[in-house]
Amino acid sequence: QLVYEVGEGPAMLRFLTGANSTKRAINENYGRELMELFCLGVTDPSGNPNYTEADVRELARALSGWTIDVTDPNNPRGLFTTSRFDAGSKTFLGRTGNFGSRQAVDIVLDHPQHAGYIVRKLWSEFVAGPPDAATLADLTATYTANGLRLKPLLKKILTHPQLFDSLSEPTL
């Protein structure tokens, strides 16, 4: 839900110029950042690319059609406009179809590298050093078993013994 709402929200639409992305002038900024920073990372742990430039272009097409409704300047909101959307078939991350933004996000979240990437990214915010293989597998299982919800994953990270071990280690 968080990924859907961020991508459709006025702040991200403005920040990464998604509000300017139309079927005639596709903007790749959010599509690239969605995969690179937010959901997959550029490469997997072995250094293999998680996506291609063609994937970025096609994902950006699926994310087109959004603008910002400022009817109420105190409460701007993302607004989908069908006439601005690229309704053609798209192929990215090995799938082909007439994907819209939510379907496209689902495809990114279904990528085999997503869960491990999120676990490692959140882990590194709280614990010094990467998780060992067993911890990574356990946390990834928690995240996926709970429908990619962050709360159970964060709870498990924040109560993990390694978090407390890293807090008690002396610093130089």
Give a quick precis of the structure.
By secondary structure, the protein is mostly helical.
Structure description:
This protein is mostly helical and 172 residues long. The protein is 50% helix and 8% strand. It contains 9 helices and 4 strands; from the N terminus they run ααααββββααααα. It has helices at 2-8, 10-15, 29-39, 53-62, 101-109, 114-126, 133-145, 150-158, 161-168; strands at residues 66-69, 77-80, 90-92, 95-97. The strands form 2 sheets. Strands 1-2 form a two-stranded antiparallel sheet. A hairpin with a 2-residue loop joins strand 3 (90-92) and strand 4 (95-97). The longest helix has 13 residues, at 114-126. The protein is globular. The mean pLDDT is 93.
Which labels suit this protein?
two-stranded antiparallel sheet; single chain; mainly alpha; 9 helices; 50% helix; 172 residues; two-stranded antiparallel ribbon; 4 strands
